[in-house]
Amino acid sequence: MIFIQTILLYYALKFRPPEAESLEVYDGHWSSVRDRFFEVNTNLLKDEMQECVGEKFPGIDKSLISGISLVIFRNWQRNSMLFGLFLLKLVSEFLRLFDAHYVRPFHFWQWHNAMKYWYFILALVLSTSVLQSIFIGNEHYALMLGSSSFLIESSLPLPQILLFQRVKTVQNFKTILLLSWLAGDLTKISYLLYGTDNVGLIFIIAALFQMSLNLVITYLFFKYRKMDIKRDQGLLPMTVLDDVNSSILLQDLAGVEDQVEPKQGKHFVRVRSRAGTVNEHEELAVSRRSTTG
């Protein structure tokens, strides 16, 4: 499997499309949460509270102490809601790391130079080899290594979910691919539950988590497939696919035709799937009509 994955990486880098390097910076709108926090809390600061604090603790910033006390004791309900919103946005930021459309920190696995990928793999192999030689025979290290690898594998459906959410279509997505994922999940879970007696709980949890993500993909597949059918029948407005390689669309409006290929009078947009294939989605002709008419 490692040999096959290495070959796949080689050809993926060799035939990497130009639009794969046109990445978008994700804006989580953290400033809105910060502004809302200050808006909710600054109105509660009282001059008498500041004076009271100042009399007891003259060397301490009065506004800071009073602000913290008011946040904790007088405005905890609103701030709890804001804290929940903060956690949701933090999870959203983490999930965006699995979407290759957006820039990751340090451009991880989005490097322009192909050699950086091989350097990283070499460093990973060397570091794991050193750790293996140090902790050889250590059951805790083996359990940690197996659990982390299983959890990483269980997150593989996430890029496909984010891709569906962004392009909002399943055109050229193969049904047999989805069926193979679900069959693989069922086989794995059946083996872990009934095929062996000595298996850690973390492995079962990871397998169930991966299957739950594939069930989300199944739901999105039928949802957007139904929308595609309605769109083909003219029951839905023919609009440009949301957030699909926006930089390419802007270049196309400017007259650059080298990254978007016309086929039979229509435009198609390349989208790379989780399986490494490149899907071409029709750019429904609103932008084309706006440039010609």
From TrEMBL:
It comes from the Eukaryota. The keyword tRNA processing does not apply. The chain crosses the membrane at residues 117-135, 200-222. Keywords: Membrane, Transmembrane, Transmembrane helix. It is found in: Membrane. GO terms for cellular component: cytosol; endosome; membrane; trans-Golgi network. It is a multi-pass membrane protein. The keyword Transmembrane helix applies. InterPro entries: PQ-loop_rpt, SLC66/Scramblase_ANY1. One of its GO terms (biological process) is retrograde transport, endosome to Golgi. Its main location: membrane. PANTHER family: PQ-LOOP REPEAT-CONTAINING PROTEIN 1, PQ-LOOP REPEAT-CONTAINING PROTEIN 1-LIKE PROTEIN. This is DEKNAAC104254.
